Amino acid sequence: MTxxxxxxxxxxxxxxxxxxxxxxxxxxxERIEVPRGQITALIGPNGAGKTTLFNCLTGFDxxxxxxxxxxxxxxxxxxxxxxxxxxxxxxxxxxRVLGKLTVMENMLLGAAQPGEKFSRALVKPWWKxxxxxxxxxxxxxxxxxxxxxxxxxxxxxxxxxxxxxxEMARALMARPRLLMLDEPMAxxxxxxxxxxxxxxxxxxxxxxSVVFVEHDMHVVKTIADWVVVMAEGKVVAEGxxxxxxxxxAVIDAYLGAHHxxxxxxxxxxxxxxxx
Length: 275
What we know:
- By secondary structure, this protein is of the alpha/beta class.
- It has eleven helices and ten strands.
- The chain has helices spanning 50-57, 80-85, 103-109, 118-121, 124-144, 160-172, 190-202, 217-223, 241-245, 248-255, 263-274, and strands at residues 10-21, 24-35, 39-43, 65-70, 73-74, 88-90, 178-182, 209-213, 226-231, 234-239.
- It has a six-stranded mixed β-sheet, sandwiched between helices.
- The longest helix is centred in the middle third of the chain and has 21 residues, at 124-144.
């Protein structure tokens, strides 16, 4: 199975990314590309290394080796807040809203803080105008995500699905160019799933590329333009959703029913073809 490279200009390119925990290799990715202006699904069975890869790329974990660039800028070794400020923002499978803050206060935490630089903090007219601009941006996002009625409620009062919406809206406060979503549908009431799908599907038209981790293949088929499949820490397949999900290596990785396909042999063949 030969390595596939997407024809479009990638916004994120990672090469030689390795992460080990003791004697366990969690991530061993030769190369991965995230297409610009599209929605990419990163799929694979539990333990495939998807979240660990997310953590390494976004500064929440340190890779043992590897390089990656975002929009042409080297990102390896950059701390998490600088990754986010560069325009690469992620969410988590378990939501991280602050329950004792209001919905609006949570939103403003996602914005660039006017007083982050001491020189700017001293100039009240500058940071006051910037703060008012961020509040307006937050108000617009809350309306868009149908959370405006909850503006002054504590985040702890929100349902699980509303917290997912809040986390995605808060991530957009940073005005990202790449949004990385770790299982955005996990734990969401079916009544809110379609709303989340609609919001994600709209992002490329707003200048935001997306890569998301997901186990629900219906979701992947519905919104993904490109699919990358991981198993045993490696990328074993990639391509458009239809043919990729029908790939015997993908079926084997998910079902564990080998169908006369040796997954390790496919990985070795892929590595040999790429070398």
